[in-house]
């Protein structure tokens, strides 16, 4: 398998998101410099044995402002938000450079403590045939180009309110010496606490 950045292999089925429920989008923002300053590149990286982030280094999680309550214990990787049973929660991930320099691919979200605030998370993909991208032929990027873009997320329906410890795993890619190719640095995981009010 190549160590060049690749998309995850999501289940082919696309989850049907009810229009009656709210979709709470959670963005996991990864500061790759904070991680690479602490953890050396792993030449033996395996996705089934990710390196744990001991202190949630470089991780910030954000959600929709109307759902946001706060961060637990002032840790930006522990999120408290409002949601109702039956609402959808979608985890997305990117680096602070928007994946343009270093990049991350989220590849697993699962419960660690069996509380089951969430149903099982599934990798899903949605292709927008008319997604807009900055126009490379224009100095300000406008008007945009329009082309198909596939977006990946990990989605679940809220099963109950409460606190749950999740395990989130992601692959981190950094630029090679040419500055052209994103190559695997290591696989990581962290264990945020999520409080659904």
UniProtKB/TrEMBL annotation:
Pfam families xref list: PixA
InterPro entries in alphabetical order: PixA-like_sf (IPR038712), Uncharacterised_PixA/AidA (IPR021087)
Domain of life according to the entry: Bacteria
Protein name: Inclusion body protein
């Amino acid at each position: 398998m190549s160590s060049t950045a690749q998309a995850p292999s999501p289940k082919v089925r696309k989850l049907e998101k009810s229009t009656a429920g709210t979709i709470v989008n959670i963005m996991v923002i990864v500061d790759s410099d904070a991680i690479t300053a602490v953890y050396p590149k792993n030449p033996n990286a395996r996705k089934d044995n990710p390196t744990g982030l001991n202190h949630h280094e470089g991780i910030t999680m954000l959600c929709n402002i109307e759902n946001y309550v706060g961060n637990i214990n002032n840790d930006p990787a522990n999120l408290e938000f409002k949601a109702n049973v039956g609402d959808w929660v979608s985890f997305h991930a990117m680096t602070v450079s928007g994946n343009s320099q270093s990049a991350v691919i989220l590849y697993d979200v699962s419960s660690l403590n069996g509380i089951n605030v969430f149903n099982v998370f599934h990798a899903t993909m949605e292709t927008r045939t008319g997604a807009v991208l900055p126009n490379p032929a224009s100095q300000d990027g406008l008007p945009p180009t329009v082309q198909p873009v596939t977006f990946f997320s990990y989605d679940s329906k809220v099963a109950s309110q409460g606190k749950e410890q999740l395990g989130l795993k992601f692959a981190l890619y950094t630029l090679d010496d040419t500055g052209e190719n994103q190559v695997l640095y290591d696989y990581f995981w962290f264990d945020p606490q999520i409080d659904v009010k």
